[in-house]
Design brief:
Blueprint: H1 18-21, H2 24-36, H3 43-56, H4 60-72, H5 77-82, H6 94-107, H7 118-127, H8 130-153, H9 161-164
């Protein structure tokens, strides 16, 4: 029988700083941030969908990072807490609900057909023009780009990058 021990006192991630290992990562991240920050989607909506992505993949680092970002932006605690159960929460706008539905559909398999149904796409199109919908898609791609680093590299929630990256 194999047992796996977990060390809650770990003070470094599994990997050295990815931005040092692959310096191009900064340019990629910057380009994604610039593309999603074009003003066609409110930053709060982007942050809400990125928080939901962190929850879906079960990653504390992403969940804590996006929760912290929403708090710093002045978002209400009720809305932050309700992201995990957004479907029955009344505190989200129609466009926010569509954004949450899209990220959930992208990250959750659907054994009964397409992940993004024609109905969901049509609903999204009622709230967003083509530029905004494309920006929303890029925002989902942005968080999905960083999910493998968060899951495999396992950065620590609430620890500054300079303190946590494994030193080689």
């Amino acid at each position: 029988m194999t047992t796996t021990a977990t060390n809650t006192d770990t003070v470094s991630s599994r990997l050295p700083n990815p931005a040092v290992l692959v310096p191009e990562l900064g340019a990629i991240g910057g380009a994604l941030y610039k593309a999603t920050g074009n003003g066609s989607i409110p930053q709060i909506t982007i942050s809400l969908l990125q928080l939901r992505a962190g929850q879906i993949v079960g990653n504390t680092y992403l969940t804590a990072m996006h929760t912290s970002g929403l708090r710093k932006a002045g978002e209400q605690e009720e809305r932050i807490s309700a992201v995990a159960s957004w479907r029955d929460a009344r505190c989200f706008t129609g466009p926010e609900r569509v954004a949450l539905a899209l990220v959930e559909a992208v990250l959750t398999s659907n054994p009964h057909g397409e992940r993004i149904s024609d109905e969901l796409y049509a609903e999204a199109s009622t709230h967003y023009d083509d530029k905004a919908l494309t920006t929303l898609i890029l925002a989902i791609g942005q968080v999905c780009f960083f999910i493998p680093l968060a899951l495999i590299g396992k950065p620590l929630a609430g620890v500054s990058p300079s303190e946590q990256w494994k030193q080689e």
